[in-house]
Amino acid sequence: DVDKKPFDKKFSATIFKHEGIKIVTYNLETFKPSASEMNKNLVKNNDSLFNNPLTKLGIEENADIYHAHELASLYAGIGIKRMLNNKGNK
Asked: pTM value?
């Protein structure tokens, strides 16, 4: 069912389990840094520059897998990986 239409009849909860996997959704509209801002922060390699709702959610979840579709969630994922690595979680 990959037709790029939003789900409107399934998965309406923000947190749910599907086939034994916990899914946590987020609102992309609240996190839209520009590409130049993301690049600048990645180069600086400073954890405090990843102070955004999506990275905070990812750290709280401490998940085994993070799935990204758009550039902003990939950027947040880099911040999550860096911060978890700094805490000793490989």
From this structure: 0.71
SS3 22: strand
The residue type of 50 is F
Q: 17-49, pLDDT tens digit by residue?
A: 888 988 888 776 677 788 888 888 888 877 778
Decide if 61 contacts 24 (C-beta within 8 A).
Answer: yes
Bridge partners of residue 23, in order along the sequence = 16
- As given in the structure block, the two tokens for residue 68 are 């990204």
Helix (H) or strand (E) segment spanning residue 42: helix 35-44
**Is 42 in contact with 34 (CB distance < 8 Å)?**
no
